[in-house]
Amino acid sequence: MEFPINFHLGGIEIPSHLIFYLLAFFLGFKYYIYLRNKKGDFIVEDQRWVLIIGAMIGALFGSKLLAALESPELFFDPPSFLFYLQGQTIVGGLLGGVIGVELAKKIVGEKRSTGDLFTFPLIFGIIIGRIGCFLTGVSDRTIGVASSLPWAFDQGDGIARHPTSLYEIIFLVCLFFILKKLEQKNLKNGMIFKIFIFSYVLFRFIIEFIKPIVPILLGLSAIQITCLIGIFYFGIQIIYTIKNGKK
Fold first, then answer.
1. How far is residue 22's CA from residue 27's CA, in Å, rounded to a whole number?
2. Exposed site from 95, 135, 158, 215, fewest CB < 10 Å?
3. Residue 140 DSSP code
4. What is the pLDDT of residues 208-223, one digit of tens each?
5. What residues contact 38, with CB distance under 8 A and at least 6 apart?
């Protein structure tokens, strides 16, 4: 297997990352619509679209900002403004989306937790997107460090590395089924989403240690620092929800 693995249409080469990136958005949204029609939704249609738009704007901003911060020397002295528009990070997108939704909820006056319905479509979309990351190989910059483990392999630069994209896919598949089981226990409103975000940022904080990161503070990367903020915030949210027992 030689990386990157791209697709060809006639004489045109289409990057696998682009294909799976678009598939992640399309299939994730279709899954969301399916769940909304199946389970119903307490948010009225107009308000729901305000929340979705808020999530999209927040996710875009958070994703781009954190991606830029991953290269701190360029963040403060960029070659051009276009630097801030390049790249994206899932952690930044998720947490930025959460902030965007919370701001949108204040606009429409909604105080209830609204994330549960998005949880499984988000997991599904990230899994699809990570397939594209894996097929892209080292140029995607989501690869692991060199490793001598039996399952490490060359992802396009002649070095056997941790297949971190595959690790994440396996983690997310397991998390998907665990949360499906928890969903049957009639947890408090919003709890499934909080557990998902908490679990994901905890996983990302740990797995970044086997990636070629650029540390910016205390040996941690921008993504890891952001993950710590997410772990702290959603950990408190989960404890608060359990103690107060609010729907």
1. 9
2. 158
3. G
4. 999 998 888 899 999 9
5. none
Q: How far apart are CA 78 and CA 81, in angstroms?
A: 7
**Which pair of structure tokens corresponds to residue 83?**
């630097």
How far are the Cα atoms of 14, 64, 66 from residue 222, in angstroms, in the given order?
Answer: 31, 12, 7
Distance between CA atoms of 79 and 41, rounded to whole angstroms? Answer: 46
Instruction: Output phi, psi for 13, to 5 deg.
Output: -95, 125
CA distance linking residue 53 with residue 187, whole number of Å: 27
- Pair of tokens at residue 186: 């009639």
Q: Which residue has the tokens 């294909």?
A: 19
Tokens of 181: 């089981």
For residue 116, what is the enclosing H or E element?
Answer: helix 116-136
Beta strands (DSSP E) in the chain are: 7-9, 12-14, 153-154, 160-161
Strand (E) or helix (H) holding 170: helix 164-183
Type of residue numbered 131:
I
* Contacts of 224 by beta carbon, 8 Å cutoff, 6+ apart: 204, 205, 208, 213
What are the strands, taking DSSP E only, across 20-120? none
Say if residue 1 is exposed, middle or buried (CB neighbours under 10 Å; 0-12, 13-18, 19+). exposed
Strands 153-154 and 12-14: unpaired
Q: Which amino acid is at 74?
A: L
Instruction: Specify whether the CB–CB gap between 170 and 126 falls below 8 A.
Output: no
Split at pLDDT 50, 70, 90, the class of 99 is: very high
Mean model confidence pLDDT for the chain:
88
Whether pTM > 0.85 for this model: the answer is yes
